[in-house]
Amino acid sequence: MTHAVATGDSLTGALDRLVDRVHGAEFAVVLSPDGLPLGGSRHVGAKLAEQISGVVAGLLALGLAATRTCDAGELRQIVVQMSRAFLFVATIRNGTILTVRIAGDDAEVGDMAYEVALFVGQAERHLPVSLEPASSVRSGDAGVHTRLR
Question: What is the average pLDDT across 19-32?
Fold first, then answer.
């Protein structure tokens, strides 16, 4: 069964449904290619969205460096395993970034990986396709939009 992802006011609803589908999922945030929060699931306030944005910026920099060093193709997903939680960071072809936190001893990590992949696969049909980092517009660089594919 596939689940639709939507834009605008319903992005929060789509992220809420993503979190609701997996036991242990706590929140989901979608960031622009520049790292600005575009939407979040329930209980994601401005402070948390800003913190996630900073964390994701660092993780993406490391992920992109790893793809260059390992000559392993495009960066698609980063998973951070902590002692009590996982953080999934997935890139979407239009440059947006999905971040999901899942926690708990009985969290369904495999289910979350599956749902993240589904969301990413469907999101590019529903999120704006013209999103690119502001820096790439000024410099002519293809920016994160190209590097994250």
Answer: 93
